[in-house]
Write a structure and sequence with these properties.
- The complex is a heterodimer.
- Helix content of chain A is 37%, strand content 19%.
- In chain A, helix 22 (637-648) crosses helix 23.
- In chain B, strand 3, helix 1 (38-42) and strand 4 form a beta-alpha-beta unit.
- The chains are: A alpha/beta, B alpha/beta.
- The complex binds adenosine-5'-diphosphate (ADP) (2 copies) and magnesium ion (2 copies).
């Protein structure tokens, strides 16, 4: 069966914003699918609400819709585009669910759209846990005992029967949201109630626990001719009970004999066939009892998944690309293996290395959330490391995490060992190492962790070897021992610490001893065939397979693991830098360690080095490749911290000089520069002691904003209204600030925040976007909705902003991208910060304006002048780019994963993702953005208002607007009084601490559809928290700033006024072109 | 920690850590790319005369157990790996992999760059080599390696074959409470299996589908086989070059048409010779568990287990007499054929797996079907 010719136009649904459990792995899969189908001559229509993705680039699809992933809008797109087919399996759970919704609403039938990839029945059979269990029983596969309940009584009854602990799983929630493990009745009731609330169908599955069993995953592919293969096996280091997304995982499986592995393989294939996934990739999860080998099947995902991305990167087998080709009729044996060229994709990759994936968590940003791991995914990112042995891969993985902590240097408490080993938590790996250092045996640690002894033995041996090394010194160490250290993955820096010398000294010594990193290839076949793709990882083996070319080349440093504040936006920039380089005839070399990304796809760049982003590893690659230079300004903070050391090591850095990047980060020097330029900034100072801090705060006046230097995403930033808070902060802050001083700024209240992205060749400056934030300054730029074009700024202010931006770019000799954040208060424009590098908003601005900013930046870094690039900018090379429509970018928060955390916004960034709304007017765009962000505004109903006195006047206007739109109002006493005084009718309701029924009761009872609640200043009180928390639990949109409330009113007005409209980016930009 | 050396005929020398037996062994150095199944590989008699390099770097993790051996003892001459596990972690494990090999006098060289060794074998073809774990000089060993007789023309089957006939009735047993191995079919057929180096899982599979098996030495004349009046004859896998096995080919020629015949691996090559075909040596052979083989009859692709250094030249077979049924999609080599008029068929790969995927188990049912039909006719 070759390619289907009855299909011409195919709709692909993306996965929407980055959330915990659904990250950029689906940008990777969607992008691969788009490329594959286009390459095959199909017309590709793409819809995804996430502007930060590569897949939503106009070049990747024929028509790209950045619109809400919701029925009415997607139906509109279908009505307009009339696709022949819908590919549902590359957009994660979101894409799959939406496909089901479209099918069940009859939309697909109405417009004659065929569901390809997985059929409706198949999806249902796999997704509905009960249907799934029946199906498995039918083919003789065991699943844990379970029952579906929709009320607490039935739940308790069943739990009583199977005994605690039990697993709870709300139906149809992402990444196990709302699920958990209950060890007793109390916990059970708590989790069950929460789960019932969170499940859109108010159903929770109660399941027999197999905690502590070994957990495995198989990645399976099948074609229409029923040829099926296993791409990769994955063994979880953390046993059952820790979500695979939160588990350290290892490929391939390490502790199964062939008999046991084949038993699992047979089961996976049976499962795939029974569920009826006729084409594409699926992921099947198993648990095995380490005592006797009893195997149960946990679940199967009838789509490309997070693990598929991992498996693709781990083996070099492009699952998503192949899945797309299978969906349009190809057979596995008709598709060539890109890497070997000679052999077909119909085979099972075999590898001669070990792959380790380690998740990255950020509980520190969620005060109130317990840093404990369970059946619900909590990690925000992950790294993958490739090594010739498990030890080497694990060590590289730990380095890749960039926790700033190296495996060895950490503070652990002996007393905590049992607790930290028994209860899974983010520090468990560290504590396992620590326990071994303290002489625990493998058996003792196994008893507490249930982790397979083989893994523990590896770690125990590594720890023992480190002890040996500590007895050595740089002078005494033998070539043999040093070589072994490197082969086991120990970094020069770690050795330097052990032998109190410098990493440079260690590097010199080992080079003198002829111990050098070499690079091996990921080739899908363990060297049985020649490999034609330079997909490389470093080892300390005997021969180097890098085979660098003679062409001019440039190396791009990626952004490492996703984390709050540094996510997909930066991968977008890196990929574009790579595409641009290739266009300019320069070989692009990508360095990154994040398996979810497009940048780590072997066909994104000319060469891919899957390596930790550390000085040592980057220098190894530099020595091997000898590129013209290195690009550091696209990968966020990660490459920036390497910029100066690299420069000092003699590596040419392209674009803005690292010294100037540094200068912009250094508040003292930068403050002086601003003075010279006559640009106002909030009064500020820095302090290295408690007393100094209080003194500075007194001098500049309260409220003040205190923070450590060198952080991204506003980590550990606090607004202090009094000295007491400053003192408390200083005592905590020093932990973060190390040798770096604490920064103190005057906090500007009720200021409008503005984000500006610009490109510069150090003389000419082009302002790409002036983005006005909806939330006032004080809410992190990454956490506030922002609007293009600015909607409330006066021409004068806008000119000032342009003027300042140009001055700053010239003063810092910016070559490439620059981002400036301003706060505007009473007509004065203050600079909050300058980042002479790609910012989080680059993809958003690129998509809104249709001008590819990263490409411009790369051209400039290669020495071109802005004047020469007018063909890329629609003719505009100075001043500000025009914006053809109204665009709103809104953040998406992970609060539903962290029950008990206060969702109030502040200067510390906490959103994991973003969406974009497009409209003719502000209200329309904002409404769409909110819908896409998963916080849709209600069509009608009751609005609850409670605002602090400063905001009452504006609140009245908002309330008036809402009332006129037919909403009824309830408010707390003070606010209610203000509303009545303004002639508005509204009900009064108690505050939580006043009595019952209070507002939380109303929310729980479902009699409030929208909450508008602004913090009453200094610190939010317990009942405010209670209200905001209940809105998260009961999925009621909660607006915590008055400016956002105004915007919401606009949006609601638009819902009444405007029809459902959609625009493709191509359409918007061609209109813009013709306008110019 | 004592030194081990692996020296190849091309002069290349790999120095690593010695494990297993302290001794010196020579043979043809070959590589296997399977990720799981080292115990089955150690004990597969087809590896007689060969030093095996495993491409998967972590070996020994799950130890060794009494059930997963493919014969009474390891047959590999020596083992080369990147990393050898110091512990065995699996509920079925009874012994460390290292101990298992040491007990049978097999030396191990570990912590060498197996990937570069494999790349060498891939580009230059398999080579003769010597593995020493008892401290001999590299130069000496290289010299020795050059004096080893080449595998081409080497007859090993009769050496590893059983000297006396024996009965087999032990079927495949589940490896875990969840292993869905079917109940063995009631014994309906008597199969005589030529042992050229037979793997136990072939016997277990035959037993599972209802065969009582009489295993006979490689040198058994056809007449003696017929005297046992079997329902079918099986030709096993085995080591070495098929070309010298003219006697065996001659016996098989006499059996074609008289009894249903099923051959695997060396058995496939011998059937090829019996039908007047030629065999040739592959550059570095097929050894792994991931080879795609197209079944031209069903049009399906099977992921298959391989272990062979020689292959049958399809052009040497008479197209009117035999039908080519299986083709390797990696290199288009012949993987199976059947006689057009007589009940005889064979595959070059290992449908019994062990190690490897189970995609091709159906061939055993195929054999049973042939025997049934043949019964009907005679
Ligand atoms: N019956 C069970 N007993 C113990 N742990 C379980 C059980 N079922 C699932 N888990 C754990 O919960 C995690 C998530 O469950 P899973 O079914 O994979 O849901 P999801 O769709 O979120 O991946 C699994 O990775 C596993 O570690
Ligand atoms: N002086 C200030 N007054 C009011 N808000 C501020 C001030 N400084 C910073 N902020 C707020 O804190 C957020 C984070 O500060 P910023 O300097 O941008 O740190 P980051 O490097 O994390 O982006 C800003 O987006 C802004 O909303
Ligand atoms: Mg799962
Ligand atoms: Mg900022």
């Amino acid at each position: 069966m070759p390619r289907r010719n009855d299909l011409h136009r195919i709709l692909i649904i993306g996965s929407g914003p980055i959330v915990i459990g659904q990250a950029c792995e689906f940008d990777y899969s969607g992008t691969q699918a788009c490329k594959a189908l286009k390459a095959d001559g199909y017309e590709v229509i793409l819809v995804n609400s996430n502007p930060a993705t590569i897949m939503t680039d106009p070049e990747l699809a024929d028509r790209t819709y950045v619109e809400p992933l919701s029925l009415p809008y997607v139906e509109k797109i279908i009505e307009r585009e009339r696709p022949d087919a819908l590919l549902s399996t590359v957009g994660g759970q979101t894409g799959l669910n939406l496909a089901v919704e479209l099918a069940e609403a009859g939309v697909l039938e109405k417009y004659g759209v065929e569901l390809i990839g997985a059929r409706l029945e198949a999806i249902k059979k796999a997704e509905d846990r009960l249907l799934f269990k029946d199906a498995m029983r039918k083919i003789g596969l065991e699943t844990p005992l379970s029952q579906l309940v929709n009320n607490v009584e039935d739940g308790l009854a069943f739990a009583g029967r199977i005994g605690y602990p039990v697993i709870l799983r709300p139906s149809f929630t992402l990444g196990g949201t709302g699920g958990g493990i209950a060890y007793n009745r109390e916990e059970f009731v708590e989790i069950l109630e929460r789960g019932l609330a969170l499940s859109p169908v108010h159903e929770v599955l109660i399941e027999e626990s197999v905690l502590g069993w070994k957990e495995f995953e198989l990645e399976v592919m099948r074609d229409l001719a029923d040829n099926a293969i296993i791409v990769c096996s994955i063994e979880n280091f953390d046993p059952m009970g820790v979500h695979t997304g939160d588990s350290i995982t290892v490929a391939p499986a390490q502790t199964l004999t062939d008999r046991e592995y084949q038993m699992m393989r047979d089961a996976a294939l049976k499962c795939l066939r029974e569920i009826g996934v006729d084409t594409g990739g699926s992921n099947v999860q198993f648990a095995i009892n380490p005592e006797n080998g009893r195997m149960v099947i946990i679940e199967m995902n009838p789509r490309v998944s997070r693990s598929s991305a991992l498996a693709s990167k781990a083996t070099g087998f492009p699952i998503a690309k192949i899945a797309a080709k299978l969906a349009v009729g190809y057979r596995l044996d008709e598709i060539p293996n890109d890497i070997t060229r000679k052999t077909p994709a119909c085979f099972e990759p075999t590898i001669d290395y070990v792959v380790v994936k380690i998740p990255r968590w950020q509980f520190e940003k969620m005060p109130g959330a317990e840093p404990v791991l369970g059946t619900q995914m909590k990690s925000v990112g992950e790294v993958m490391a490739i090594g010739r042995t498990f030890k080497q891969a694990l060590a590289k993985g730990i380095r890749s995490l960039e926790t700033g902590k190296s495996a060895a240097a950490e503070i652990y408490e002996e007393a905590l060992i049992p607790q930290k080993l028994i209860t899974p938590n983010p520090d468990r790996l560290g504590y396992i190492r620590f326990a071994f250092q303290r002489g625990y045996t493998v058996e003792q640690v196994r008893e507490m962790t249930a982790i397979d002894p083989w893994f523990l033995q590896q770690i125990q041996e590594a720890v023992a070897f480190e002890k040996e090394l500590e007895r050595e010194s740089l002078a005494t160490v033998s070539r043999e021992t040093l070589r072994r250290a490197k082969r086991e993955g120990i970094s020069d820096a770690q050795l330097a610490r052990m032998w109190n010398t410098t990493w440079q000294a260690v590097r010199e010594r080992r080079k003198a001893l002829g111990i050098r990193a070499v690079f091996s290839r990921v080739d899908t076949c363990a060297a049985e065939f020649e490999s034609f793709t330079p997909y490389l990882y470093s080892t300390y083996e005997s021969e180097c397979e890098a085979e660098p070319s003679e062409r001019p080349k440039v190396m791009i440093l990626g952004s490492g693991p996703n984390r709050i504040g540094q996510g997909i936006e930066f991968d977008y920039c890196c990929c574009h830098a790579s595409f641009a380089l290739q266009e300019f005839g320069i070989e692009s070399i990508m360095v990154n360690c994040n398996p979810e990304t497009v940048s780590t796809d072997y066909d994104t760049s000319d060469r891919l080095y899957f390596e930790p982003l550390t000085l040592e590893e980057v220098l190894n690659i530099y020595d091997t490749e000898q590129p013209l230079g290195v690009i550091v300004q696209f990968g966020g903070q990660t490459p920036l911290t390497l910029a100066l050391p690299l420069k000092r090591a003699g590596v040419p850095i392209l674009g803005t000089d690292p010294e100037n990047i540094d200068l912009a980060e250094d508040r003292r020097l930068f403050g002086r520069l601003l003075e010279d330029l006559g640009i106002p900034t909030p009064p500020n100072g820095s302090a290295t002691s408690v007393e100094e801090a209080c003194e500075v705060a007194r001098r500049i006046g309260y409220p003040v904003l205190v923070r450590p230097s060198y952080v991204l995403g506003g980590r550990a930033m606090v607004i202090a209204y009094d000295e007491e808070t400053v003192r408390r902060y200083m005592r905590e802050a020093v932990v973060f600030s190390q040798d770096r001083p604490v920064l103190i700024d005057r906090f500007l209240e009720d200021a409008v925040e503005v984000d500006v992205d610009a490109v510069s060749d150090s003389e000419d400056v082009l302002i790409a976007g002036i983005m006005e934030h909806i939330e006032e300054a004080g809410v992190h730029s990454g956490d506030s909705s922002c609007v293009l074009p600015a909607f409330s700024l006066s021409a004068a202010v806008r000119n000032t902003i342009e003027e300042y931006t140009q001055r700053l770019a010239r003063a810092l000799h910016v070559v490439g991208l620059m981002n400036v954040q301003y706060a505007v208060k009473n007509g004065t424009v203050y600079v909050l910060e300058v980042n002479p590098r790609a910012s989080r908003t680059v993809p958003y601005v690129s998509k809104a304006t249709g001008v590819p900013l990263p490409k411009l930046a790369v051209a400039l870094m290669l020495g071109k002048r802005l004047k020469e690039l007018s063909h890329l900018t629609g003719g505009v090379v100075t001043g500000c780019l025009p914006v053809p429509q109204v665009f709103v970018k809104s953040p998406v928060f992970p609060f539903n994963k962290f029950p008990g955390v206060d969702p109030a916004l502040g200067p510390e960034m906490r959103s994991t993702g973003e969406v974009m709304g497009v409209g003719e007017n502000f209200g329309e765009a904002f409404g769409k953005a909110q819908l896409s962000a998963g916080t849709p505004l209600p069509e009608q109903g009751t609005v609850f208002l409670s605002v602090n006195d400063r905001h009452k006047p504006e609140a009245v206007e908002v309330a008036r607007r809402l009332a006129s739109l037919g909403f009824s109002l309830v408010a707390t006493r003070g606010t209610a009084a203000a509303l009545r005084a303004a002639g508005l009718s509204c009900r009064t309701v108690f505050k939580v601490n006043e009595g019952r029924p209070n507002v939380v009761d109303l929310i729980k009872a479902g009699s409030v559809q929208l909450v508008i609640y602004t913090p009453t200043g200094a610190h939010s009180f317990s009942d405010e928290r209670a209200i905001r928390r209940s809105t998260v639990a009961y999925r009621v949109p909660c607006i915590t700033t008055i400016s956002a409330a105004k915007a919401a009113a606009e949006a609601l007005a638009s819902r009444r006024r405007d029809p459902v409209r959609v625009w493709s980016l191509q359409q918007i930009h061609s209109r813009a072109e013709s306008a110019v | 920690m004592s030194q081990a050396v692996l020296a190849l005929e091309d002069g290349s020398v790999f120095e690593g850590r010695a494990f297993g037996a302290r001794t010196e062994r020579c043979g043809e150095v070959v590589f296997n790319t399977a990720i799981t199944g080292y115990q089955e590989i150690f004990t597969d008699p087809s590896y007689a005369g060969q030093i095996v390099v495993l491409t998967y770097p972590e070996i020994g993790n799950y130890g060794a157990n009494p059930d997963d051996s493919e014969s009474a003892r390891p047959f590999i001459e020596g083992l080369a790996v990147r990393e050898l596990s110091s512990i065995a972690s699996n509920w079925r494990s009874r012994q460390h992999a290292e101990q298992f090999l040491a007990d049978h006098g097999v030396p191990i060289i570990a912590e060498i760059d197996t990937r570069s060794l494999v790349r060498r074998l891939r580009s230059r073809g398999v080579m003769r080599g010597v593995l020493s774990t008892c401290g001999a000089s590299a130069e000496e060993l290289v010299e020795k390696a050059r004096r080893i007789p080449s595998m081409a023309g080497l007859e090993l089957a009769t050496r590893v074959s059983t000297q006396t006939p024996y009965e087999w009735s032990e079927p495949v047993r589940p490896c875990s409470p969840s292993d869905p191995v079917p109940e063995p079919a009631p014994v309906r057929f008597h199969v005589v299996a030529y042992d050229y180096g037979i793997k136990r899982n072939i016997l277990r599979r035959l037993a599972l589908v209802g065969c009582r098996v009489t295993v006979v030495p490689a040198s058994t004349p056809a007449e003696d086989v017929l005297a046992l009046n079997p329902d079918g004859v099986f030709l096993s896998n085995g080591p070495g070059d098929p070309e010298p096995l003219q006697f065996q080919a001659a016996q098989v020629r006499k059996l074609i048409g008289k009894k249903p015949i099923f051959g695997i691996c060396l058995g496939h090559q011998i059937l090829g010779l019996a039908l007047g075909g030629r065999t040739y040596k592959l550059k570095f052979g097929h050894r792994g568990a991931n080879h795609p083989v197209l079944n031209r009859v069903t049009g399906r692709v099977e992921i298959t287990s391989h272990n062979h250094g020689f292959a049958v030249d399809p052009d040497s077979l008479n197209g009117n007499e035999v039908e080519l049924t299986h083709i390797n999609l990696n290199d288009q080599t012949l993987e199976g054929f059947r006689h057009r008029s007589h009940p005889a068929f064979c595959v070059q790969y290992h449908p019994e797996a062990a190690p490897g995927p189970h995609d091709s188990h159906y061939l055993f049912d195929e054999f049973v079907r042939l025997m049934k039909e043949f019964h009907g006719r005679s």
